[in-house]
From TrEMBL:
Organism ancestry: Bacteria, Pseudomonadati, Pseudomonadota, Alphaproteobacteria, Rhodobacterales
Naturally occurring in which organism (per UniProt): Paracoccus simplex
Family recorded in the similarity comment: Belongs to the UPF0065 (bug) family.
Keyword Signal: yes
Protein name: Tripartite tricarboxylate transporter substrate-binding protein
InterPro entries: BUG, Bug_dom1
Length: 312
């Protein structure tokens, strides 16, 4: 009887509005990705997906809210690599990352850029590294809290340069960008989905990218790796999750709709303009996201343990 009920329920899905929790501030990089896909998924599902920004504690607050939500397919989470790093960074996480969610699929993978306020002295990445090493204790590094992508990148940068900076946490790099533009903070590692416009407009400076190859968008920017920072090579992968117990048929339905959104010409173009690309249809599946999360928890655990940074 239970199987029948679940199947019947899934068949009727969705019959009302869906909430997509973004665990960072509105106007930031995760929010940008969420709004791009939510609009097209809404059209495919025939129901509105409303984005709700629940910023704080490096993305763990929003993820925690979804972990506790009804497993009925009407609350979903769009989160990034922080889902994996927070599992090690937080010793007292309110949820058990690998057992609190079901999976819908991967969305995109976004490169990061090492940026600084526009009047920051160094003119290239070699100069940037020397300057940071010489002036570390006077420089501020903005991030979106422990567990954010900007935190991971900043942590690896400080480790590679053997220079601790004064870190300033925000609820997202949206508000952090406002302070970088205003010159209230000096340096930030952030995703191209939040920095491209400002770099092109010359309102912030960019020094290096974390992708394996240089970006088409900024061919003059070196990769961190080619500049000698071997550890600074990674992309910020995003995925969509539902609370544990959400029926498989619903996760599959959401995955199909995600695949439709990611194949949309407008989405492909908007992502390309922001230095990224949609995940493939194969990757926009529950199995691919589950495998990615497991692999990424294993990848970052020893790195974080070696750095010795934790949040309580
Ligand atoms: C955001 O949307 O604010 C970000 O993804 C923050 C981050 O993780 O650095």
């Amino acid at each position: 009887a239970l199987t029948f009920t679940t199947a019947a329920y899934a068949q009727d899905y969705p019959n009302r509005q869906i909430t997509m929790v973004v665990p960072f501030s509105a106007g930031g990089p995760t929010d940008t990705v969420a709004r791009l896909v939510a609009e097209k998924m809404s059209a495919d599902l025939g129901q509105q997906i409303v984005v709700e920004n629940v910023g704080g504690a490096g993305g763990t607050l929003g993820a925690g809210q979804v972990a506790k939500a009804e497993a009925d397919g009407y609350t979903v989470l769009l989160h990034h690599i922080g889902m994996a790093t927070s599992a090690t960074l937080y010793r007292n996480l309110a949820y058990d990352t690998l057992n609190a969610f079901e999976y819908v699929g991967l969305v995109t993978e976004v490169p990061m850029v090492v940026t600084a306020r526009k009047d920051f002295e160094p003119t290239d990445f070699a100069g940037f590294m020397d300057y940071v090493k010489a002036h570390g204790d006077e420089l501020t590094l903005a991030n979106a809290g422990i567990g954010a992508a900007s935190h991971l990148c900043g942590m690896l940068l400080m480790q590679a340069l053997e220079t601790p900076l004064v870190t300033v946490p925000y609820k997202g790099t949206g508000p952090a960008m406002t302070d970088l533009l205003g010159g209230q903070t000096d340096i930030m590692c952030d995703q191209t989905t939040n920095t491209t416009q400002q770099i092109k407009g010359g309102t912030i400076k960019a020094y290096a990218v974390t992708s394996p190859e240089r970006l088409k968008l900024f061919p003059d920017l070196p990769t961190a790796k080619e500049s000698g920072l071997e550890t600074l090579e990674f992309g910020i992968w995003h995925g969509i999750y539902t609370p544990k117990g959400t029926p498989a048929a619903i996760n599959e339905r959401l995955s199909k709709s995600l695949q439709v959104a990611l194949a949309d010409e407008g989405v492909i173009k908007a992502m390309a303009d922001l230095g990224t690309a949609p995940s493939s249809a194969e990757d926009a599946t529950p199995a691919a996201l589950k495998a990615k999360l497991e692999a990424e928890i294993a990848r970052w655990k020893p790195v974080i343990e070696a750095a010795g940074v934790y949040a309580d």
